Amino acid sequence: MEQSGAMLTTNKEVKAKIIDLYDELFFHDGYGEVKVEMRILQRGQKEIIIHCGKQYRFVVDCQNKNRPKDTK
Question: Is the pLDDT of residue 2 over 90?
Answer without folding.
Answer: no
